Amino acid sequence: MLQTRFTKLVGVEHPIVQGGMQWVGRAELVAAVANAGALGFITALTQPTPEDLTKEIARCRDLTDKPFGVNLTILPAIKPPPYAEYRAAIIEAGIKVVETAGNKPQEHVDEFRKHGVKVVHKCTSVRHALSAERMGVDAISIDGFECAGHPGEDDTPGLILIPAAANKVKIPMIASGGFADARGLVAALALGAEGINMGTRFMATKESPIHQLIKEKIVANDERETELIFRTMRNTSRVARNEISTKVVAMEKEGAKFEDIRELVAGARGKMVYATGNSDEGIWSAGQVQGLIQDIPSCGELISRIVREAEAIIRSRLEGMIVQPSAQAAE
After folding, report:
1. Cα–Cα–Cα angle for 61, 18, 100, nearest 5°?
2. pLDDT tens digit sequence for 212-258
3. Which of 84, 93, 148, 267 has the most CB atoms around its CB within 10 Å?
4. Selection from 230, 201, 207, 228 nearest residue 289 by Cα
5. Cβ atoms within 10 A of the Cβ of 123, count?
């Protein structure tokens, strides 16, 4: 068993997190992750109303008696969701750990902490991680450029970002973006993180509530099958490469504004991808880590395999590389 500051903080067995994913972070996936000894997050805004979130939390509790959390992402919107009501639903349900992401969540952090809720804040740069630490969050999830969704605008890959953050951040830190297997977990621990966050990898599991054809598409895709949309609007998002994302990138290069592509990138179309299995129906998030995903296991199989292989890498491969000077001389 691999124990870190993060596993102790949130009370789970393994230093593996299934972070928030719009339309994907539902009770059946989160409970499967929890039952396997890792930490799963229900995605609050996947639920249409705070009342629906309350029901989803109850549904998850019917499926597991292990710890799980809720993700609350705060992003700019023409008509913002009722964040305070979602926050209240999370607190009233007795959730003990929350993943926040997006714009400065100070009021949410203060309110969660007041009710004894641990806050893990997701960010994409060292400066934002330090800002969140000053804000009083309990842990950081640091997202490298490889990640699905919003990688920020600095384009710093995990191999630099994780140790750069570890040099300065004092609270526990989870590495996110580009993780799918035991090698990634061991690398993250070596770079100074206390565990890993996986999104795309958990999409391709048996319990993931998306269409089987999309899971198979993730397995078939290699590491080049993503596009960066909204670059020209400084709101970069890494999504799966398909007819629509390729068209959006081309339109942006020709000077298109958000109004010109709004119809193509509508969330309702992206939701339909997961429902119908048609990968060209809309925009959907996927990371470069697709190139490391070769199968569709259960969450239990995936997590136990990662932990077992990570222990083997540490015990056999890495320890085996250490040669005592006297032994070397004898050879």
Report:
1. 90
2. 999 999 999 999 999 999 999 999 999 999 999 999 999 999 999 99
3. 148
4. 201
5. 24
Question: Residue 232 has what DSSP assignment?
Answer: G
Both tokens assigned to 50: 């705070």
Mode of pairing for the β-strands spanning 196-198 and 16-18: parallel
3-state secondary structure 66-89: CCCEEEEEECCCCCCCCHHHHHHH
- The predicted model scores a pTM of 0.96
Strand-pair partners of 239? 227, 285
The answer to whether 196 and 176 have CB atoms below 8 angstroms apart is yes
DSSP β-ladder status, 97-102 and 226-229: unpaired
- Name the helix (H) or strand (E) containing 97: strand 97-102
Long-range contacts of 220-225 (CB under 8 A, 24+ apart): 221/286, 221/290, 221/291, 222/290, 222/291, 223/288, 223/289, 223/290, 223/291, 223/292, 224/288, 224/291, 225/286, 225/290
| Torsion region of 226: left, alpha or beta (phi above 0 gives left; psi -120 to 50 gives alpha) | beta
